[in-house]
Design brief:
10 helices; elongated; mainly alpha
Protein backbone atom coordinates (compact mmCIF):
# COMPACT_ATOMS: atom_id res chain seq x y z
CA UNK A 1 0.00 0.00 0.00
CA UNK A 2 2.83 2.41 0.80
CA UNK A 3 4.40 1.80 -2.61
CA UNK A 4 1.01 2.33 -4.26
CA UNK A 5 0.52 5.63 -2.45
CA UNK A 6 4.04 6.80 -3.24
CA UNK A 7 3.53 6.17 -6.96
CA UNK A 8 0.09 7.79 -6.87
CA UNK A 9 1.40 10.90 -5.13
CA UNK A 10 4.38 11.28 -7.46
CA UNK A 11 2.33 10.91 -10.66
CA UNK A 12 -0.39 13.26 -9.38
CA UNK A 13 2.18 15.90 -8.36
CA UNK A 14 3.85 15.75 -11.76
CA UNK A 15 0.48 16.05 -13.52
CA UNK A 16 -0.50 19.12 -11.50
CA UNK A 17 2.95 20.69 -11.83
CA UNK A 18 2.89 20.30 -15.61
CA UNK A 19 -0.58 21.87 -15.72
CA UNK A 20 0.34 24.89 -13.59
CA UNK A 21 3.59 25.70 -15.39
CA UNK A 22 2.23 25.12 -18.90
CA UNK A 23 -0.31 27.69 -20.15
CA UNK A 24 -0.98 25.48 -23.17
CA UNK A 25 -2.54 22.93 -20.80
CA UNK A 26 -4.06 25.19 -18.14
CA UNK A 27 -5.66 27.93 -20.24
CA UNK A 28 -7.80 25.74 -22.55
CA UNK A 29 -9.16 23.77 -19.58
CA UNK A 30 -10.47 27.05 -18.11
CA UNK A 31 -11.44 28.94 -21.27
CA UNK A 32 -13.40 26.04 -22.77
CA UNK A 33 -16.10 25.81 -20.04
CA UNK A 34 -16.22 29.61 -19.65
CA UNK A 35 -16.95 29.92 -23.36
CA UNK A 36 -19.84 27.47 -23.09
CA UNK A 37 -21.18 29.25 -20.01
CA UNK A 38 -21.21 32.59 -21.81
CA UNK A 39 -22.56 31.16 -25.06
CA UNK A 40 -25.31 29.06 -23.50
CA UNK A 41 -26.37 30.98 -20.40
CA UNK A 42 -26.03 34.38 -22.08
CA UNK A 43 -26.70 33.89 -25.78
CA UNK A 44 -29.53 31.38 -25.33
CA UNK A 45 -31.25 32.90 -22.30
CA UNK A 46 -34.43 33.55 -24.33
CA UNK A 47 -35.05 29.81 -24.32
CA UNK A 48 -36.29 30.19 -20.75
CA UNK A 49 -39.42 31.85 -22.19
CA UNK A 50 -40.36 28.73 -24.17
CA UNK A 51 -43.76 27.40 -23.04
CA UNK A 52 -43.51 24.66 -20.38
CA UNK A 53 -39.90 25.55 -19.56
CA UNK A 54 -39.91 25.62 -15.79
CA UNK A 55 -36.71 25.87 -13.79
CA UNK A 56 -37.13 28.21 -10.80
CA UNK A 57 -33.47 29.32 -10.39
CA UNK A 58 -33.40 30.60 -13.98
CA UNK A 59 -31.63 29.76 -17.23
CA UNK A 60 -28.14 30.74 -16.04
CA UNK A 61 -28.41 28.19 -13.24
CA UNK A 62 -29.89 25.64 -15.65
CA UNK A 63 -26.90 25.93 -17.97
CA UNK A 64 -24.37 26.22 -15.16
CA UNK A 65 -25.04 22.63 -14.10
CA UNK A 66 -24.30 21.40 -17.61
CA UNK A 67 -21.11 23.47 -17.90
CA UNK A 68 -20.02 22.44 -14.40
CA UNK A 69 -20.42 18.74 -15.18
CA UNK A 70 -18.96 19.20 -18.65
CA UNK A 71 -15.84 20.77 -17.12
CA UNK A 72 -15.59 17.75 -14.81
CA UNK A 73 -15.76 15.33 -17.73
CA UNK A 74 -13.29 17.23 -19.86
CA UNK A 75 -10.96 17.64 -16.90
CA UNK A 76 -10.62 13.87 -17.04
CA UNK A 77 -10.34 13.82 -20.82
CA UNK A 78 -7.48 16.32 -20.86
CA UNK A 79 -5.55 13.97 -18.59
CA UNK A 80 -5.58 11.41 -21.38
CA UNK A 81 -3.86 13.90 -23.66
CA UNK A 82 -1.08 14.25 -21.10
CA UNK A 83 -0.70 10.47 -20.79
CA UNK A 84 -0.46 10.08 -24.55
CA UNK A 85 2.14 12.86 -24.61
CA UNK A 86 4.11 11.00 -21.94
CA UNK A 87 4.21 7.90 -24.14
CA UNK A 88 5.33 9.90 -27.17
CA UNK A 89 8.14 11.47 -25.14
CA UNK A 90 9.22 8.14 -23.65
CA UNK A 91 8.55 9.24 -20.06
CA UNK A 92 5.66 6.82 -19.56
CA UNK A 93 7.81 3.83 -20.46
CA UNK A 94 10.43 4.91 -17.92
CA UNK A 95 7.65 5.32 -15.40
CA UNK A 96 6.43 1.78 -16.07
CA UNK A 97 9.94 0.47 -15.48
CA UNK A 98 10.53 2.37 -12.24
CA UNK A 99 7.13 2.20 -10.52
CA UNK A 100 7.02 -0.60 -7.91
CA UNK A 101 3.19 -0.58 -7.97
CA UNK A 102 2.03 0.21 -11.48
CA UNK A 103 -1.62 0.48 -10.55
CA UNK A 104 -0.58 3.64 -8.71
CA UNK A 105 0.11 5.21 -12.11
CA UNK A 106 -3.58 5.07 -13.00
CA UNK A 107 -4.58 6.39 -9.57
CA UNK A 108 -2.03 9.19 -9.83
CA UNK A 109 -3.27 10.36 -13.22
CA UNK A 110 -6.88 10.20 -11.96
CA UNK A 111 -5.99 12.19 -8.83
CA UNK A 112 -4.17 14.74 -10.97
CA UNK A 113 -7.28 15.10 -13.14
CA UNK A 114 -9.44 15.66 -10.08
CA UNK A 115 -7.12 18.31 -8.62
CA UNK A 116 -6.92 20.08 -11.98
CA UNK A 117 -10.71 20.12 -12.25
CA UNK A 118 -10.96 21.57 -8.73
CA UNK A 119 -9.36 24.72 -10.14
CA UNK A 120 -11.50 24.78 -13.28
CA UNK A 121 -14.72 24.07 -11.40
CA UNK A 122 -13.99 26.88 -8.96
CA UNK A 123 -13.39 29.38 -11.76
CA UNK A 124 -16.59 28.35 -13.56
CA UNK A 125 -18.63 28.59 -10.36
CA UNK A 126 -17.32 32.05 -9.51
CA UNK A 127 -18.01 33.23 -13.07
CA UNK A 128 -21.58 31.92 -12.89
CA UNK A 129 -22.20 33.63 -9.55
CA UNK A 130 -20.89 36.90 -10.98
CA UNK A 131 -23.26 36.43 -13.93
CA UNK A 132 -26.20 36.23 -11.55
CA UNK A 133 -26.70 32.51 -11.01
CA UNK A 134 -29.35 31.68 -8.41
CA UNK A 135 -28.71 28.83 -5.97
CA UNK A 136 -31.76 27.36 -4.25
CA UNK A 137 -30.19 24.16 -2.93
CA UNK A 138 -28.97 23.82 0.65
CA UNK A 139 -25.47 22.86 1.73
CA UNK A 140 -26.05 19.11 1.58
CA UNK A 141 -27.58 19.35 -1.88
CA UNK A 142 -24.68 21.44 -3.17
CA UNK A 143 -22.25 18.86 -1.80
CA UNK A 144 -24.24 16.29 -3.78
CA UNK A 145 -23.80 18.36 -6.93
CA UNK A 146 -20.05 18.56 -6.34
CA UNK A 147 -20.04 14.81 -5.70
CA UNK A 148 -21.60 14.20 -9.11
CA UNK A 149 -18.83 16.25 -10.69
CA UNK A 150 -16.11 14.43 -8.76
CA UNK A 151 -17.29 10.96 -9.77
CA UNK A 152 -17.89 12.03 -13.38
CA UNK A 153 -14.36 13.41 -13.50
CA UNK A 154 -12.99 10.08 -12.26
CA UNK A 155 -14.99 8.14 -14.86
CA UNK A 156 -13.72 10.36 -17.68
CA UNK A 157 -10.12 10.21 -16.39
CA UNK A 158 -10.19 6.39 -16.25
CA UNK A 159 -11.62 6.26 -19.77
CA UNK A 160 -8.95 8.63 -21.08
CA UNK A 161 -6.23 6.71 -19.24
CA UNK A 162 -7.34 3.42 -20.77
CA UNK A 163 -7.48 4.72 -24.33
CA UNK A 164 -4.15 6.55 -24.00
CA UNK A 165 -2.44 3.44 -22.65
CA UNK A 166 -3.91 1.20 -25.34
CA UNK A 167 -2.83 3.47 -28.21
CA UNK A 168 0.19 5.22 -26.63
CA UNK A 169 0.25 8.18 -29.03
CA UNK A 170 -1.04 11.75 -29.10
CA UNK A 171 -2.98 10.82 -32.22
CA UNK A 172 -5.42 9.11 -29.85
CA UNK A 173 -6.71 12.53 -28.80
CA UNK A 174 -9.80 12.46 -31.01
CA UNK A 175 -10.78 9.00 -29.82
CA UNK A 176 -10.35 10.05 -26.19
CA UNK A 177 -12.45 13.17 -26.55
CA UNK A 178 -15.18 12.40 -29.07
CA UNK A 179 -17.23 9.75 -27.17
CA UNK A 180 -17.40 11.98 -24.09
CA UNK A 181 -18.33 15.01 -26.20
CA UNK A 182 -21.10 13.08 -27.98
CA UNK A 183 -22.55 11.66 -24.75
CA UNK A 184 -22.65 15.12 -23.18
CA UNK A 185 -24.43 16.75 -26.11
CA UNK A 186 -26.93 13.92 -26.52
CA UNK A 187 -28.25 14.77 -23.06
CA UNK A 188 -30.84 17.55 -22.49
CA UNK A 189 -28.39 20.44 -22.77
CA UNK A 190 -30.52 23.43 -23.74
CA UNK A 191 -33.99 22.49 -22.45
CA UNK A 192 -35.46 19.89 -20.08
CA UNK A 193 -35.92 16.44 -21.57
CA UNK A 194 -39.69 16.89 -21.61
CA UNK A 195 -39.28 19.58 -24.29
CA UNK A 196 -37.13 17.44 -26.57
CA UNK A 197 -38.75 15.74 -29.53
CA UNK A 198 -37.90 13.18 -32.19
CA UNK A 199 -34.81 11.02 -32.14
CA UNK A 200 -32.91 13.27 -29.74
CA UNK A 201 -35.59 12.65 -27.10
CA UNK A 202 -35.29 8.89 -27.57
CA UNK A 203 -31.50 9.00 -27.34
CA UNK A 204 -31.53 11.30 -24.30
CA UNK A 205 -33.89 8.91 -22.51
CA UNK A 206 -31.30 6.10 -22.64
CA UNK A 207 -28.22 8.29 -22.19
CA UNK A 208 -26.88 7.69 -18.64
CA UNK A 209 -25.64 11.29 -18.47
CA UNK A 210 -29.23 12.51 -18.69
CA UNK A 211 -29.93 11.25 -15.17
CA UNK A 212 -26.68 12.84 -13.94
CA UNK A 213 -27.58 16.17 -15.51
CA UNK A 214 -31.15 16.13 -14.22
CA UNK A 215 -29.96 15.17 -10.75
CA UNK A 216 -27.47 18.05 -10.73
CA UNK A 217 -30.11 20.55 -11.81
CA UNK A 218 -32.51 19.26 -9.20
CA UNK A 219 -29.89 19.61 -6.47
CA UNK A 220 -29.06 23.19 -7.46
CA UNK A 221 -32.78 24.03 -7.51
CA UNK A 222 -33.36 22.52 -4.07
CA UNK A 223 -35.67 19.85 -5.53
CA UNK A 224 -33.60 16.65 -5.78
CA UNK A 225 -34.61 14.10 -8.41
CA UNK A 226 -32.92 10.94 -9.71
CA UNK A 227 -29.96 11.42 -7.36
CA UNK A 228 -29.73 7.72 -6.54
CA UNK A 229 -29.99 6.75 -10.21
CA UNK A 230 -27.29 9.27 -11.14
CA UNK A 231 -24.81 8.06 -8.52
CA UNK A 232 -25.57 4.42 -9.37
CA UNK A 233 -24.87 5.08 -13.06
CA UNK A 234 -21.62 6.86 -12.21
CA UNK A 235 -20.56 4.09 -9.81
CA UNK A 236 -21.12 1.56 -12.59
CA UNK A 237 -19.05 3.80 -14.85
CA UNK A 238 -16.20 3.87 -12.34
CA UNK A 239 -16.21 0.07 -12.05
CA UNK A 240 -16.29 -0.43 -15.82
CA UNK A 241 -13.66 2.19 -16.58
CA UNK A 242 -11.38 0.87 -13.82
CA UNK A 243 -11.33 -2.49 -15.56
CA UNK A 244 -10.80 -0.77 -18.91
CA UNK A 245 -7.91 1.36 -17.66
CA UNK A 246 -6.24 -1.66 -16.06
CA UNK A 247 -6.50 -3.49 -19.38
CA UNK A 248 -4.88 -0.48 -21.01
CA UNK A 249 -2.10 -0.57 -18.42
CA UNK A 250 -1.55 -4.28 -19.09
CA UNK A 251 -1.36 -3.52 -22.82
CA UNK A 252 1.26 -0.83 -22.20
CA UNK A 253 3.25 -3.23 -20.01
CA UNK A 254 3.26 -5.88 -22.74
CA UNK A 255 4.37 -3.30 -25.31
CA UNK A 256 7.39 -2.52 -23.12
Amino acid sequence: MRRFLNVTRAVAWRSIHNTVVSPAILVPSIIFPLFFLIAFAGGLSRISHVPNFHYPPGYTSFQFVFVFLQSAAFGGVFTGFGIARDFDSGFARRLLLSAPRRSGIIAGYALGALLRWALTGTVVTVAALIAGMNVYGNGVQLVGLIGLGVVLNIVAALWACGVAMFLRTEQAGALIQMPVFVLLFLAPVYVPITLLTGWIHAVANVNPLTAVLEAGRGLLAGSPIKVGIAFAALAAGVALMTLFSRRGLASAERAG
